[in-house]
Every structure is written in structure tokens, then in C-alpha cells.
Write a structure and sequence with these properties.
With 86 residues, the protein is mainly alpha-helical. It has one domain. Helix content is 66%, strand content 0%. α1 crosses α3. The termini are far apart. The mean pLDDT is 93.
């Protein structure tokens, strides 16, 4: 595995953990990277610009053109994950 691939895998894990953190707190509030509410603003301040930027990169990459490779950027994914844990 190349260094670039290793970094990508690390970024994927980190972004997924950040999305998990958001959706654990706010399970029905989509798009945590759209700073249009007090909760989203507070979360952005809490995690910092670099982490918010990382989340945004993966959310914006999860499109039809790329085959939706990151389902964990969507609230529906976490609702299912969290419901399976109960």
C-alpha cells in the first residue's frame, strides 16, 4: 500500500468517526457540514476547521458520479447502525 493510500484510509476512518459522533448526538439532523444551525456551528467549533473540512470532503465525494462510496455520510446509515445496536 502506498503512502497516499495509507493516508486515504486514515482519513476515511477519521471522517467516519466524526460522522458517527455527529449522528450519535443528532440522529435526524443531516449534513453536519452545512453550518446553518447553532448545533452545527457548535460542533464545527468543537472539532475544528481541519476536521470539518475532512468531513466536507467525504460528504461531497459521496455522489452518483463516484457511486456513493461513503454511505456513512448520510443520517439514514447511522439510524440503521444505531438501531442495530439496541
Amino acid at each position: 500500500m502506498t503512502e497516499k493510500e495509507k493516508q486515504h484510509e486514515k482519513d476515511v476512518r477519521q471522517a467516519k468517526a466524526l460522522f458517527a459522533r455527529w449522528f450519535a448526538k443528532y440522529p435526524t439532523v443531516p449534513n453536519p457540514t452545512d453550518i446553518n444551525s447553532r448545533a452545527k456551528f457548535n460542533f464545527a467549533v468543537e472539532i475544528g476547521y481541519d476536521n470539518l473540512s475532512l468531513m466536507l470532503r467525504f460528504r461531497k465525494s459521496n455522489v452518483k458520479r463516484t457511486g456513493y462510496p461513503y454511505p456513512w455520510t448520510q443520517a439514514e446509515y447511522w439510524l440503521e447502525v444505531f438501531s442495530d445496536e439496541n
